[in-house]
Amino acid sequence: MDLAPDSSDAQVALASLLLETGHWADAERQLQIALRELPNDGRLHAMLGYAFAKEGHEDDALRAFKRSRELCDRCMTSEETTTYAALKNANK
Fold it and tell me: Most buried of 5, 40, 61, 90 (most Cβ within 10 A)?
C-alpha cells in the first residue's frame, strides 16, 4: 500500500486479507476505496456485501449482494451466496 496507495489491485488484496482475518470494518473501507476505481466489479460488491453482513449492516449487505448479482451471475463464493440467501429470507 505504501508503494502504490492508489492501486485498486492493492486495495482488493488488502481487503481480501482483512476479510480472511475477520477485520470487517477495515475490509469494508478498503473495498469502498477499490469500488471507486472499479464500480462495476461484481466480485468487489459481493465481498462488500459479506463485510456489511458480518458487521450487522443488513440493508447495506443486501444492496451490495444485489448489485453483485446484477453485474455477474457467479461472482459470489458459496459462503457469500449462503449469507445473501439468509439475509433475503430474514427480510421477507
Answer: 61
